[in-house]
Amino acid sequence: MRSDANTYLKASTSQDAREKKAQQGFRYDKSAFKDKRVMLIDDSIVRGTNMREIIKNVRLLGATQVHVGVTWPPIIASCPYGVDMPNLLVAKDRTMNEIREYLGADTLTYIMPNDVFDILGRKSLCMGCITGIYPTQEQTLDYFKKRFHQVI
Fold it and tell me: Which pTM value belongs to this model?
C-alpha cells in the first residue's frame, strides 16, 4: 500500500471531503493482501476516516483478517492548547469494541496512557487529549471557547 498524497486536511474540512480524500489517497497491490492476515500500524487515530477506508480496501483485496495497532492511546478530547483537533473523535464516547467495529477491524490494540510515560521516560506530560484532564485547572476547553468567542 502506498500513499499518493499527504492525507492531512484542516480540521474545518467537511467529513464528506475527508472520506473522498481517504478513498483517493492510497494505491494498493492486490498480491500483497490476497489470502493474508494483515496487521496495520498507525501512530494515532483521530477521526478514523483513513483507517476505516484502508481496512475496507484491504478486505476487498482479499485479506482474510485485518488487525490494527495504534502507537498512541485513544484520543477522546480536543486540545485547547493550540493543536488543531476536530470534535468528531472516533474514540469519544465509544468503547474499544465499538471503535473496532466502526473501523471494521478484527482486532484493535492501542498503547495505554500509563505506558506513554514509561516509553517517553517522563514523569509529567500533558495528556488532556487522551484523558480529558488538562494540566491547568482554570483553562479548560470551555474556558478557551468562551475566551475565543469574546475576542471575535
Answer: 0.74
